[in-house]
């Protein structure tokens, strides 16, 4: 045996990094839910977009705006990439226990989901 490795085997051994682009933009359930005092809000983008997350009280009052900026297409599911909310309003005060709605806007996509903060 000469110790010659077929070229196909050498190529197959090289690890490949594959970045999967989602087929559709979507907003997922926050976690944990219910939460106190913080939560992560996962989403995915089928194409690059300026992303904004609005958080509303049940009476429709805007509690907080998270301007996430221009995001590349991809999945934003884990804690290092998902949107993060610290349970505070625009002035830095902790919000009251109760139900809140969060709306993701990304390009022409908009979706709203419900979350619960319990103290």
Report on this model:
- The protein is mainly beta and 119 residues long.
- The protein has a single domain, classed as Immunoglobulin-like.
- It has one helix at residues 7-13, and strands at residues 26-27, 39-41, 43-45, 49-57, 62-71, 74-76, 83-85, 98-106, 109-117.
- A hairpin with a 4-residue loop joins strand 4 and strand 5.
- The protein is elongated.
- The model has no long low-confidence stretch (mean pLDDT 91).
> Could you list the spans in which at least 5 consecutive residues all have pLDDT below 50?
none
Helix tally equals: 1
How are the strands ordered across the major sheet? Answer: 5-4-8-9
What is the second-level CATH architecture?
Sandwich
Q: How many β-strand runs?
A: 9
Q: Structural class of the helices, strands and pairings?
A: mainly beta
- Rounded to the nearest angstrom, the distance between the terminal CA atoms is 70 Å
Number of domains: 1
N-to-C order of helices and strands: HEEEEEEEEE
- State the helical fraction: under 10%
Integer average pLDDT:
91
């Amino acid at each position: 045996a000469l110790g010659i490795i077929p070229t196909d085997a050498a190529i197959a051994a090289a690890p490949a990094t594959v970045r999967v682009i989602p087929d559709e933009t979507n907003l997922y359930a926050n976690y944990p839910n219910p939460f106190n005092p913080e939560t992560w809000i996962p989403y995915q983008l089928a194409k690059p977009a300026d992303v904004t997350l609005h958080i509303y009280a049940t009476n429709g009052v805007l509690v907080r705006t998270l301007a996430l900026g221009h995001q590349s297409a991809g999945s934003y599911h884990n804690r290092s990439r998902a949107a993060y909310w610290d349970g505070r309003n625009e002035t830095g005060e902790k919000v009251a226990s109760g139900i809140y709605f969060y709306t993701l806007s990304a390009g022409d996509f908009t979706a709203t989901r419900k979350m619960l903060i319990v103290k």
